[in-house]
Inverse folding.
Protein backbone atom coordinates (compact mmCIF):
# COMPACT_ATOMS: atom_id res chain seq x y z
CA UNK A 1 0.00 0.00 0.00
CA UNK A 2 3.03 2.32 0.27
CA UNK A 3 3.33 2.80 -3.52
CA UNK A 4 -0.32 3.96 -4.05
CA UNK A 5 0.02 6.35 -1.09
CA UNK A 6 3.22 7.84 -2.55
CA UNK A 7 1.44 8.22 -5.90
CA UNK A 8 -1.45 10.07 -4.23
CA UNK A 9 1.01 12.32 -2.37
CA UNK A 10 2.86 13.15 -5.61
CA UNK A 11 -0.42 13.87 -7.42
CA UNK A 12 -1.64 16.11 -4.57
CA UNK A 13 1.69 17.99 -4.47
CA UNK A 14 1.55 18.50 -8.26
CA UNK A 15 -1.98 19.92 -8.12
CA UNK A 16 -0.96 22.33 -5.35
CA UNK A 17 2.26 23.39 -7.09
CA UNK A 18 0.38 24.17 -10.32
CA UNK A 19 -2.24 26.23 -8.45
CA UNK A 20 0.45 28.08 -6.46
CA UNK A 21 1.98 29.21 -9.76
CA UNK A 22 -1.35 30.13 -11.35
CA UNK A 23 -3.22 33.43 -11.29
CA UNK A 24 -5.92 31.75 -9.16
CA UNK A 25 -3.71 31.70 -6.04
CA UNK A 26 -4.32 35.37 -5.22
CA UNK A 27 -8.08 35.03 -5.80
CA UNK A 28 -8.32 31.92 -3.59
CA UNK A 29 -6.35 33.61 -0.80
CA UNK A 30 -9.04 36.33 -0.63
CA UNK A 31 -12.07 34.02 -0.46
CA UNK A 32 -13.96 34.33 2.84
CA UNK A 33 -14.92 30.66 2.64
CA UNK A 34 -11.26 29.62 2.62
CA UNK A 35 -9.60 32.04 5.05
CA UNK A 36 -10.75 33.82 8.19
CA UNK A 37 -9.36 36.65 10.34
CA UNK A 38 -7.66 33.95 12.43
CA UNK A 39 -5.78 32.03 9.77
CA UNK A 40 -5.40 34.31 6.71
CA UNK A 41 -1.88 34.34 5.29
CA UNK A 42 -1.87 38.09 4.65
CA UNK A 43 -2.38 38.62 8.39
CA UNK A 44 0.58 36.34 9.14
CA UNK A 45 2.70 38.41 6.72
CA UNK A 46 1.53 41.59 8.50
CA UNK A 47 2.48 40.08 11.86
CA UNK A 48 5.92 39.14 10.53
CA UNK A 49 6.45 42.70 9.27
CA UNK A 50 5.61 44.10 12.72
CA UNK A 51 7.92 41.56 14.38
CA UNK A 52 10.81 42.54 12.07
CA UNK A 53 10.26 46.18 13.03
CA UNK A 54 10.54 45.29 16.72
CA UNK A 55 6.84 45.91 17.35
CA UNK A 56 4.61 43.32 19.01
CA UNK A 57 2.46 41.67 16.29
CA UNK A 58 -0.43 41.79 18.78
CA UNK A 59 -0.25 45.56 19.30
CA UNK A 60 -2.94 46.17 16.67
CA UNK A 61 -6.02 44.27 15.60
CA UNK A 62 -4.54 42.49 12.58
CA UNK A 63 -2.70 39.38 13.75
CA UNK A 64 -4.51 36.71 15.78
CA UNK A 65 -2.37 33.60 15.32
CA UNK A 66 -0.29 32.08 18.13
CA UNK A 67 3.35 33.10 18.83
CA UNK A 68 4.70 29.67 17.81
CA UNK A 69 3.18 30.07 14.35
CA UNK A 70 4.68 33.51 13.76
CA UNK A 71 8.11 32.41 14.98
CA UNK A 72 7.91 29.30 12.78
CA UNK A 73 7.28 31.41 9.68
CA UNK A 74 9.86 33.96 10.81
CA UNK A 75 12.45 31.35 9.78
CA UNK A 76 10.69 29.61 6.87
CA UNK A 77 8.61 32.39 5.30
CA UNK A 78 10.53 32.00 2.02
CA UNK A 79 9.47 28.36 1.87
CA UNK A 80 5.89 28.86 3.04
CA UNK A 81 4.39 26.99 0.09
CA UNK A 82 6.46 23.90 0.94
CA UNK A 83 5.47 24.19 4.61
CA UNK A 84 1.76 24.04 3.77
CA UNK A 85 2.22 21.17 1.31
CA UNK A 86 4.27 19.25 3.88
CA UNK A 87 1.56 19.91 6.52
CA UNK A 88 -1.07 18.39 4.22
CA UNK A 89 1.20 15.41 3.51
CA UNK A 90 1.78 14.86 7.25
CA UNK A 91 -1.97 14.98 7.87
CA UNK A 92 -2.68 12.48 5.11
CA UNK A 93 0.03 10.03 6.24
CA UNK A 94 -1.10 10.31 9.86
CA UNK A 95 -4.71 9.63 8.84
CA UNK A 96 -3.57 6.69 6.70
CA UNK A 97 -1.63 5.11 9.59
CA UNK A 98 -4.31 5.71 12.22
CA UNK A 99 -7.07 4.25 10.03
CA UNK A 100 -4.85 1.23 9.35
CA UNK A 101 -4.47 0.65 13.10
CA UNK A 102 -8.16 1.32 13.73
CA UNK A 103 -9.19 -1.25 11.11
CA UNK A 104 -6.90 -3.84 12.70
CA UNK A 105 -8.52 -3.18 16.07
CA UNK A 106 -12.04 -3.40 14.62
CA UNK A 107 -11.23 -6.66 12.83
CA UNK A 108 -9.65 -8.15 15.97
CA UNK A 109 -12.64 -7.18 18.11
CA UNK A 110 -15.02 -8.56 15.50
CA UNK A 111 -13.06 -11.83 15.29
CA UNK A 112 -13.21 -12.35 19.07
CA UNK A 113 -16.96 -11.63 19.07
CA UNK A 114 -17.54 -14.17 16.29
CA UNK A 115 -15.48 -16.81 18.10
CA UNK A 116 -17.46 -16.18 21.28
CA UNK A 117 -20.72 -16.38 19.28
CA UNK A 118 -21.88 -12.97 20.53
CA UNK A 119 -23.52 -11.90 17.29
CA UNK A 120 -27.03 -13.04 16.27
CA UNK A 121 -26.98 -15.38 13.28
CA UNK A 122 -28.83 -13.02 10.94
CA UNK A 123 -26.21 -10.22 11.09
CA UNK A 124 -23.56 -12.02 9.05
CA UNK A 125 -24.06 -9.50 6.22
CA UNK A 126 -23.09 -6.67 8.60
CA UNK A 127 -19.74 -8.25 9.44
CA UNK A 128 -16.83 -6.38 7.85
CA UNK A 129 -14.33 -8.35 5.78
CA UNK A 130 -10.57 -7.70 5.39
CA UNK A 131 -11.08 -7.24 1.64
CA UNK A 132 -13.50 -4.33 2.03
CA UNK A 133 -11.34 -2.75 4.75
CA UNK A 134 -8.05 -3.08 2.84
CA UNK A 135 -8.30 0.09 0.75
CA UNK A 136 -10.00 2.29 3.36
CA UNK A 137 -6.74 3.92 4.65
CA UNK A 138 -5.79 4.87 1.09
CA UNK A 139 -9.30 6.25 0.45
CA UNK A 140 -9.02 8.39 3.59
CA UNK A 141 -5.68 9.86 2.43
CA UNK A 142 -7.19 10.40 -1.02
CA UNK A 143 -10.32 12.04 0.42
CA UNK A 144 -8.16 14.46 2.39
CA UNK A 145 -5.45 15.32 -0.15
CA UNK A 146 -7.68 15.69 -3.21
CA UNK A 147 -10.69 17.21 -1.49
CA UNK A 148 -11.23 20.63 -3.16
CA UNK A 149 -11.68 22.17 0.29
CA UNK A 150 -8.22 20.95 1.36
CA UNK A 151 -6.59 22.05 -1.89
CA UNK A 152 -8.14 25.54 -1.65
CA UNK A 153 -7.05 25.89 1.97
CA UNK A 154 -3.48 24.89 1.12
CA UNK A 155 -3.23 27.19 -1.92
CA UNK A 156 -4.59 30.10 0.17
CA UNK A 157 -1.87 29.25 2.74
CA UNK A 158 -4.43 29.14 5.52
CA UNK A 159 -2.89 28.08 8.83
CA UNK A 160 -5.90 25.80 9.26
CA UNK A 161 -3.79 23.17 7.45
CA UNK A 162 -1.25 23.25 10.29
CA UNK A 163 -4.04 22.80 12.85
CA UNK A 164 -5.32 19.78 10.93
CA UNK A 165 -1.84 18.26 10.93
CA UNK A 166 -1.59 18.63 14.71
CA UNK A 167 -5.04 17.07 15.26
CA UNK A 168 -4.17 14.18 12.93
CA UNK A 169 -0.91 13.55 14.85
CA UNK A 170 -2.87 13.68 18.11
CA UNK A 171 -5.29 11.04 16.82
CA UNK A 172 -2.41 8.86 15.58
CA UNK A 173 -0.63 9.10 18.95
CA UNK A 174 -3.87 8.21 20.72
CA UNK A 175 -4.60 5.15 18.60
CA UNK A 176 -0.99 4.01 19.02
CA UNK A 177 -1.60 4.10 22.78
CA UNK A 178 0.97 6.79 23.63
CA UNK A 179 -0.71 8.85 26.35
CA UNK A 180 2.25 11.23 26.60
CA UNK A 181 2.39 12.12 22.88
CA UNK A 182 -1.40 12.27 22.76
CA UNK A 183 -1.41 14.81 25.61
CA UNK A 184 1.32 16.88 23.92
CA UNK A 185 -0.41 17.06 20.53
CA UNK A 186 -3.80 17.71 22.16
CA UNK A 187 -2.30 20.59 24.15
CA UNK A 188 -0.77 21.96 20.91
CA UNK A 189 -4.15 21.73 19.17
CA UNK A 190 -5.86 23.45 22.11
CA UNK A 191 -3.14 26.12 22.16
CA UNK A 192 -3.72 26.75 18.46
CA UNK A 193 -7.51 27.11 18.39
CA UNK A 194 -8.96 26.39 21.86
CA UNK A 195 -11.88 24.22 20.66
CA UNK A 196 -9.93 20.90 20.47
CA UNK A 197 -10.19 20.89 24.26
CA UNK A 198 -13.35 18.81 23.67
CA UNK A 199 -11.20 16.01 22.20
CA UNK A 200 -9.85 15.28 25.69
CA UNK A 201 -12.87 13.06 26.45
CA UNK A 202 -12.59 10.68 23.45
CA UNK A 203 -8.81 10.42 23.87
CA UNK A 204 -9.22 9.52 27.54
CA UNK A 205 -11.94 6.96 26.78
CA UNK A 206 -9.82 5.31 24.08
CA UNK A 207 -6.72 5.09 26.26
CA UNK A 208 -8.77 3.67 29.14
CA UNK A 209 -10.27 1.11 26.77
CA UNK A 210 -6.83 0.18 25.44
CA UNK A 211 -5.51 -0.39 28.97
CA UNK A 212 -8.65 -2.38 29.92
CA UNK A 213 -9.52 0.12 32.66
CA UNK A 214 -13.31 0.24 33.20
CA UNK A 215 -15.05 3.60 32.84
CA UNK A 216 -16.42 3.54 36.36
CA UNK A 217 -16.40 6.52 38.73
CA UNK A 218 -16.03 4.10 41.65
CA UNK A 219 -12.87 2.58 40.23
CA UNK A 220 -9.58 3.96 41.67
CA UNK A 221 -7.70 2.97 38.49
CA UNK A 222 -10.10 5.09 36.42
CA UNK A 223 -9.42 8.21 38.50
CA UNK A 224 -5.68 7.51 38.68
CA UNK A 225 -5.27 7.31 34.90
CA UNK A 226 -7.62 10.27 34.33
CA UNK A 227 -5.47 12.31 36.73
CA UNK A 228 -2.25 11.20 35.02
CA UNK A 229 -3.52 12.05 31.54
CA UNK A 230 -4.99 15.35 32.78
CA UNK A 231 -1.67 16.33 34.39
CA UNK A 232 0.25 15.48 31.19
CA UNK A 233 -2.20 17.51 29.12
CA UNK A 234 -2.29 20.56 31.41
CA UNK A 235 1.47 20.36 32.00
CA UNK A 236 2.15 20.35 28.24
CA UNK A 237 -0.26 23.26 27.76
CA UNK A 238 1.48 25.20 30.53
CA UNK A 239 4.92 24.59 29.01
CA UNK A 240 3.74 25.73 25.54
CA UNK A 241 2.08 28.81 27.04
CA UNK A 242 5.22 29.76 29.00
CA UNK A 243 7.38 29.16 25.90
CA UNK A 244 5.17 31.61 24.01
CA UNK A 245 5.66 34.15 26.80
CA UNK A 246 9.46 33.79 26.65
CA UNK A 247 9.45 34.16 22.86
CA UNK A 248 7.21 37.21 22.89
CA UNK A 249 8.16 38.77 26.22
CA UNK A 250 4.54 39.49 27.15
CA UNK A 251 1.10 37.95 27.58
CA UNK A 252 -0.43 40.15 24.84
CA UNK A 253 -1.20 37.13 22.69
CA UNK A 254 -3.77 35.68 25.12
CA UNK A 255 -6.47 38.35 24.59
CA UNK A 256 -5.47 38.72 20.92
CA UNK A 257 -5.82 35.01 20.16
CA UNK A 258 -8.18 33.40 22.67
CA UNK A 259 -10.11 36.57 23.51
CA UNK A 260 -10.61 37.09 19.78
CA UNK A 261 -11.91 33.52 19.31
CA UNK A 262 -14.34 33.79 22.21
CA UNK A 263 -15.57 37.38 21.87
CA UNK A 264 -15.89 37.36 18.02
CA UNK A 265 -15.20 41.09 17.47
CA UNK A 266 -14.46 40.73 13.73
CA UNK A 267 -17.72 40.14 11.86
CA UNK A 268 -16.19 39.52 8.44
CA UNK A 269 -18.57 37.16 6.58
CA UNK A 270 -17.59 33.48 6.60
CA UNK A 271 -19.27 30.06 6.37
CA UNK A 272 -20.07 30.07 10.10
CA UNK A 273 -23.15 31.00 12.09
CA UNK A 274 -21.79 33.91 14.17
CA UNK A 275 -21.09 36.82 11.86
CA UNK A 276 -24.57 37.78 10.61
CA UNK A 277 -26.31 37.10 13.91
CA UNK A 278 -23.98 39.35 15.89
CA UNK A 279 -23.95 42.03 13.21
CA UNK A 280 -27.71 42.38 13.77
CA UNK A 281 -27.54 41.91 17.55
CA UNK A 282 -28.36 44.70 20.03
CA UNK A 283 -25.25 45.33 22.10
CA UNK A 284 -26.87 44.68 25.49
CA UNK A 285 -27.87 41.14 24.36
CA UNK A 286 -24.46 40.35 22.87
CA UNK A 287 -22.82 38.74 25.92
CA UNK A 288 -25.73 36.40 26.59
CA UNK A 289 -25.97 35.13 23.01
CA UNK A 290 -22.20 34.95 22.73
CA UNK A 291 -22.19 32.53 25.66
CA UNK A 292 -25.03 30.53 24.10
CA UNK A 293 -23.26 30.23 20.75
CA UNK A 294 -19.88 29.35 22.26
CA UNK A 295 -21.34 26.78 24.66
CA UNK A 296 -22.71 24.95 21.61
CA UNK A 297 -19.26 23.56 20.79
CA UNK A 298 -18.67 22.23 24.32
CA UNK A 299 -22.25 21.29 25.24
CA UNK A 300 -22.42 18.11 23.14
CA UNK A 301 -19.23 16.61 24.57
CA UNK A 302 -20.72 15.02 27.69
CA UNK A 303 -23.90 13.48 26.17
CA UNK A 304 -21.94 12.18 23.18
CA UNK A 305 -19.23 10.78 25.48
CA UNK A 306 -21.88 8.98 27.56
CA UNK A 307 -23.60 7.53 24.47
CA UNK A 308 -20.39 6.60 22.64
CA UNK A 309 -18.11 5.64 25.53
CA UNK A 310 -17.55 2.22 23.94
CA UNK A 311 -16.71 3.83 20.56
CA UNK A 312 -14.19 6.62 21.23
CA UNK A 313 -12.87 6.90 17.66
CA UNK A 314 -16.35 7.56 16.29
CA UNK A 315 -16.82 10.01 19.18
CA UNK A 316 -13.64 11.77 18.05
CA UNK A 317 -15.05 12.04 14.52
CA UNK A 318 -18.28 13.50 15.91
CA UNK A 319 -16.43 16.05 18.04
CA UNK A 320 -14.26 17.23 15.14
CA UNK A 321 -17.41 17.67 13.05
CA UNK A 322 -19.16 19.62 15.83
CA UNK A 323 -16.11 21.91 16.17
CA UNK A 324 -16.05 22.51 12.39
CA UNK A 325 -19.71 23.50 12.35
CA UNK A 326 -20.05 25.58 15.52
CA UNK A 327 -16.67 27.31 15.95
CA UNK A 328 -16.64 31.08 15.68
CA UNK A 329 -14.45 31.39 12.56
CA UNK A 330 -14.83 28.20 10.48
CA UNK A 331 -13.34 27.67 7.03
CA UNK A 332 -13.59 24.91 4.44
CA UNK A 333 -10.25 23.57 5.69
CA UNK A 334 -11.89 22.60 9.00
CA UNK A 335 -14.61 20.69 7.15
CA UNK A 336 -12.11 18.73 5.06
CA UNK A 337 -10.64 17.02 8.13
CA UNK A 338 -13.82 15.31 9.33
CA UNK A 339 -14.95 14.59 5.76
CA UNK A 340 -11.75 12.59 5.24
CA UNK A 341 -13.14 10.04 7.73
CA UNK A 342 -16.27 9.28 5.70
CA UNK A 343 -14.68 6.25 3.94
CA UNK A 344 -14.00 4.74 7.39
CA UNK A 345 -17.76 4.54 7.91
CA UNK A 346 -18.54 3.15 4.43
CA UNK A 347 -20.14 0.12 6.10
CA UNK A 348 -22.88 2.45 7.39
CA UNK A 349 -24.15 3.45 3.94
CA UNK A 350 -27.04 1.00 4.02
CA UNK A 351 -28.41 2.71 7.14
CA UNK A 352 -28.01 6.32 5.99
CA UNK A 353 -31.35 7.99 5.30
CA UNK A 354 -30.56 11.33 3.64
CA UNK A 355 -27.10 10.92 2.15
CA UNK A 356 -28.08 11.76 -1.45
CA UNK A 357 -30.09 14.86 -0.55
CA UNK A 358 -27.45 16.11 1.91
CA UNK A 359 -24.64 15.55 -0.62
CA UNK A 360 -26.56 17.55 -3.22
CA UNK A 361 -27.19 20.35 -0.70
CA UNK A 362 -23.49 20.59 0.27
CA UNK A 363 -22.32 20.58 -3.36
CA UNK A 364 -24.94 23.16 -4.40
CA UNK A 365 -24.04 25.45 -1.49
CA UNK A 366 -20.32 25.17 -2.27
CA UNK A 367 -21.05 26.36 -5.82
CA UNK A 368 -23.43 29.12 -4.70
CA UNK A 369 -21.09 30.68 -2.11
CA UNK A 370 -18.98 32.61 -4.67
CA UNK A 371 -22.04 33.35 -6.82
CA UNK A 372 -24.01 35.03 -4.03
CA UNK A 373 -20.86 36.77 -2.77
CA UNK A 374 -20.39 38.30 -6.23
CA UNK A 375 -24.05 39.35 -6.40
CA UNK A 376 -23.78 40.98 -2.96
CA UNK A 377 -20.36 42.65 -3.04
CA UNK A 378 -19.71 43.35 -6.73
CA UNK A 379 -23.01 43.37 -8.64
CA UNK A 380 -25.01 44.97 -5.83
CA UNK A 381 -28.10 43.00 -6.82
CA UNK A 382 -28.22 41.02 -3.55
CA UNK A 383 -27.50 41.67 0.11
CA UNK A 384 -26.06 39.94 3.18
CA UNK A 385 -29.31 38.01 3.70
CA UNK A 386 -28.68 36.05 0.50
CA UNK A 387 -25.17 35.04 1.54
CA UNK A 388 -26.17 34.18 5.10
CA UNK A 389 -29.11 32.10 3.90
CA UNK A 390 -26.80 29.86 1.88
CA UNK A 391 -24.50 29.70 4.90
CA UNK A 392 -27.41 28.48 7.03
CA UNK A 393 -28.36 25.86 4.45
CA UNK A 394 -24.74 24.70 4.26
CA UNK A 395 -24.51 24.29 8.03
CA UNK A 396 -27.88 22.57 8.23
CA UNK A 397 -26.59 20.19 5.56
CA UNK A 398 -23.53 19.44 7.67
CA UNK A 399 -25.65 18.87 10.77
CA UNK A 400 -27.91 16.48 8.84
CA UNK A 401 -24.86 14.64 7.48
CA UNK A 402 -23.29 14.17 10.92
CA UNK A 403 -26.58 13.24 12.62
CA UNK A 404 -27.30 10.75 9.82
CA UNK A 405 -23.96 9.01 10.42
CA UNK A 406 -24.64 9.08 14.16
CA UNK A 407 -28.02 7.40 13.62
CA UNK A 408 -26.53 4.83 11.20
CA UNK A 409 -23.70 3.97 13.60
CA UNK A 410 -26.06 3.43 16.55
CA UNK A 411 -28.49 1.45 14.40
CA UNK A 412 -25.76 -0.92 13.19
CA UNK A 413 -24.55 -1.46 16.77
CA UNK A 414 -28.14 -2.19 17.83
CA UNK A 415 -28.51 -4.76 15.04
CA UNK A 416 -25.22 -6.41 16.00
CA UNK A 417 -26.65 -6.91 19.49
CA UNK A 418 -30.32 -7.70 18.80
CA UNK A 419 -30.34 -9.01 15.25
CA UNK A 420 -30.91 -7.49 11.83
CA UNK A 421 -34.58 -8.42 11.40
CA UNK A 422 -36.41 -7.17 14.47
CA UNK A 423 -39.80 -8.59 15.43
CA UNK A 424 -42.47 -7.51 17.87
CA UNK A 425 -43.92 -9.95 20.42
CA UNK A 426 -46.77 -10.74 18.06
CA UNK A 427 -44.31 -11.71 15.31
CA UNK A 428 -44.82 -8.65 13.08
CA UNK A 429 -41.88 -6.61 11.81
CA UNK A 430 -40.67 -3.94 14.25
CA UNK A 431 -39.48 -0.43 13.42
CA UNK A 432 -36.31 0.87 15.04
CA UNK A 433 -36.65 4.42 16.40
CA UNK A 434 -33.64 6.42 17.64
CA UNK A 435 -34.40 8.29 20.86
Amino acid sequence: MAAPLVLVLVLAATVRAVLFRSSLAGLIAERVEVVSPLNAWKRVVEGLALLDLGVSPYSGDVFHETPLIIYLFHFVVEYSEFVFMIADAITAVALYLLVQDYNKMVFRKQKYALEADRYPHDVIELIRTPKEMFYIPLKVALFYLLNPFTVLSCVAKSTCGLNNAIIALFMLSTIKGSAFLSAIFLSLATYQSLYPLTLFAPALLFLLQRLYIPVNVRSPSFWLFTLQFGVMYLGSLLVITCLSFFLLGSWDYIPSVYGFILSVPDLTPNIGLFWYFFAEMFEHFRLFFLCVFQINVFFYTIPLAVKLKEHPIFLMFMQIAVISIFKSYPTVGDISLYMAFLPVWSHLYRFLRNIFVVSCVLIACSVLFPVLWHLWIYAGSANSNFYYSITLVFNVGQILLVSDYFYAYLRREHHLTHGLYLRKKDGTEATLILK
User: Anything to note?
Assistant: The mean pLDDT is 91. The chain is about 70% helix and 0% strand. Residues 80-115 form the longest helix (36 residues). The radius of gyration is 23 Å.
